[in-house]
């Protein structure tokens, strides 16, 4: 029998995993947070995400209370360059990914009842009567068997649910992002709409074969520091090659050197490939594009979201569809409960949703709110 | 089709997705209202480049040319001679 005194096991230390851990610990539960790499932070940390979407509504007010608000406060306290910024009809929080990583690492360390393990591989998950019974892991070469009261998959690609049954996961349907941080740029080089003009020059250069085709769909964005610009390349994760993309970035840098404000630009950091949709679970409910556009409310609401449908289609590229002014929708808990299981959840990017619904619900602020909701409801739902 | 009509149709259908904001007219501020963000401006540029066989240079893509539908019409008419 599984007891509530057994730990909540959360796999994946990204936005949803960390918030779920903080939230469950605040309820007095023992939490085991298992991370496959050497640090928490997930996509923000590894892929250099510098704009956090999904924290604010279209007026710039917080969409959800609780941990997303606390996160914003902590990030603002930790770095004076953290700032809220309007992009089109949305509001984002500009952050330094390193600051983000440090803030959440310290936050978890200071929270009682959270045991974080790094370099963890999941070996086996055993199921009995619609419940997760045991999770077998290796950590730094040592094997362990855990008996969780609940298991939460916050891996971003539903790898734990996939481990149990591949039929419970729909494959991802979006381009991934490879981000490069440039420094040494004139402070107003991307001031709107100069960035658009630069992108136009880059795309012309691709058409004239002066730049490789990988540059045709890239995007440029400002960072938190005045001399900082992020370049976002969009590639299918299965086609991604680190060495090749670094060469592409270098060729782009040489091209940019001739453009206004980029004469002294240099590559400061490369991110790792970040996936926008690497698989969605089949949940008790599947969030749809209609739910999002109709602003549907659910009795089992976990959190609110209102990010545009930002779909990075593998063939068609990006389409951005804003929701109506003042609009928001609910993400229900049932879209994070894995179908047919009583104690298996998946939060964050791998929630149960159609590809275009996920293209709105996947952003960092929503992931924080989703994780928090599961932590609060994990035993009482 | 006249530039003005083509542009209105494009802004209403593609940029605004068929949803007209309150008080929308030819002088409505497309930039300050957030209507024309980077994505939508890029799409508009690509559309007009293909539709009218023109090229937008780095000096064409400045706020005063994109501030409103009327400003865009004037800029495009000038560009197309």
From TrEMBL, chain A:
Record flagged with keyword Oxidoreductase = yes
Domain of life the protein comes from: Bacteria
Give the record's keywords alphabetically. Answer: 4Fe-4S, Iron, Iron-sulfur, Metal-binding, Oxidoreductase
Gene3D superfamilies, alphabetized? FAD/NAD(P)-binding domain
Example of a GO MF term: oxidoreductase activity
Is Cytoplasm a UniProt keyword of this protein? no
Protein's recorded name: FAD-dependent oxidoreductase domain-containing protein
Task: Name the source organism.
Answer: Desulfonema magnum
Automatic annotation (TrEMBL), chain B:
InterPro entries from the UniProt entry: ACP-like_sf (IPR036736)
Q: What is this protein called?
A: Phosphopantetheine binding ACP domain-containing protein
Organism whose genome encodes this protein: Desulfonema magnum
